[in-house]
Design the sequence.
């Protein structure tokens, strides 16, 4: 199999170990493939031993394929993965063709999550790019008859319902560590912002001001929230402590501001505003200042998501009577359409800045999809789980 050429950068074993603090691994010094978008590495997942070996190998092959960096092959391959698995542990060993082991990752716990951990270790070691298999996705579903908050692994396993408010829950947003979720609930009869701790299951109100409290997004360090409040009149953008209080108002316009998304360095916030008429994407300093429009084309643009590498802002835009997902360089310029089949909304970047999760409506049903923005293919995530909307990745 002929593959695109790649530049090679020598990394020592201790450097690779530092990149993978959560996986127990034995490393050999190895040339890490520095791949360009569009490059594909052939990898073969051999039969795994142990009572859960077959299932583990199947999950691992799917993870490596979804990463976008690998093509899983039945024979040959530049790399070969061997291993064994039980119900609570996975051991793997990756060889470069006819060579010494490259990485020997192992993980324990829930089988699927352990395999996801091993998959991310392989992606990060071989390609130098961040894996997404360990990431989770929060979303809203009306499966129960009400809009409630759920969380799932990125392959729609280990789904858990987090709220039973019997009202309306909207706008979930993970913190970067993946330990907390901010969301809006109408359980009191009014839209208030809550923060849920996933480890303890506890939730607390952080914004219950008169009027609208919505769209909270954690800063990269988890210490602050950007959100929309209407306590002073029309909906404006504010920053506050993630524990509540210490409000700072950022915008003062005649329009309405919504959907804040932080830059990865925490210095800027992208948001949507209709101050100029139709909603458009703007960027404002997190410390205060004037907002600057980032999308040069006209139309209806909302729900920005700033990529973790800082390079792109994805957003929803109205096109031909339905919504599409587009992106623009964070510095501004011409936009490119990423997903337009059906009606596509609510984009959120994965931790690797390559994949997006978004909501697509077709035939009156709304499901979540994961889009590889390099391969240009979208994989359906949810099915027969009610209408699913407003996804948010952990680990950003």
Sequence:
């Amino acid at each position: 199999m002929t593959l695109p050429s790649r530049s090679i950068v020598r990394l020592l074993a201790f450097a690779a170990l530092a990149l993978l603090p959560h996986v127990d691994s034995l490393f050999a010094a190895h040339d890490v493939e520095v791949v360009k978008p569009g490059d594909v590495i052939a990898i073969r997942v051999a039969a795994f031993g142990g009572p859960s070996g077959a299932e583990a190998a199947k999950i691992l092959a799917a993870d490596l394929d979804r990463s976008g960096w690998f093509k899983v092959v039945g024979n040959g391959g530049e790399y070969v993965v061997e291993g064994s698995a039980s119900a609570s542990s996975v051991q793997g060993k990756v060889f470069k063709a006819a060579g010494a082991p490259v990485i020997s990752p192992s993980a324990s716990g829930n089988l699927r999550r352990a395999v996801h951990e091993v998959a991310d270790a392989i992606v990060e070691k071989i390609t130098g790019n961040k894996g997404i298999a360990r990431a989770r996705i929060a979303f809203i579903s009306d499966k129960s008859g009400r809009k409630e908050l759920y969380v799932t692994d990125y392959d729609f396993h280990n789904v858990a319902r987090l709220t039973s408010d019997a009202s309306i829950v909207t706008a979930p947003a993970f913190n970067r560590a993946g330990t907390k979720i901010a969301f809006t609930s109408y359980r009191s009869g009014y839209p208030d912002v809550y923060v849920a701790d996933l480890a303890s299951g506890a939730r607390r109100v952080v914004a219950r001001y008169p009027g609208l409290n919505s769209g909270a997004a954690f800063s990269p360090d988890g210490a602050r929230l950007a959100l929309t409040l209407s306590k002073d009149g029309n909906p404006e953008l504010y920053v506050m402590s993630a524990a509540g209080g210490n409000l700072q108002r950022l915008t003062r316009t005649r329009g309405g501001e919504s959907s804040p998304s932080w830059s990865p360095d925490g210095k800027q916030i992208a948001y949507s505003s209709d101050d100029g008429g139709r909603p458009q994407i703007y960027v404002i300093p997190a410390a205060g200042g004037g907002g600057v429009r980032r999308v040069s084309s006209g139309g209806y643009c909302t729900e920005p998501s700033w990529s973790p590498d800082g390079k792109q802002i994805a957003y929803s835009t109205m096109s031909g009577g339905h919504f599409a997902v587009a992106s623009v360089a964070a510095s501004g310029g011409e936009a490119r359409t990423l997903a337009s089949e059906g009606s596509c909304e609510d984009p959120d970047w994965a931790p690797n800045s390559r994949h997006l999760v978004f909501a697509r409506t077709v035939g009156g049903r709304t499901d979540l999809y994961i889009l590889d923005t390099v391969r240009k293919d979208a994989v359906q995530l949810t099915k027969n789980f009610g209408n699913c909307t407003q996804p948010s990745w952990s680990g950003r």
User: Anything to note?
Assistant: Residues 62 and 164 are 33 Å apart (CA to CA).
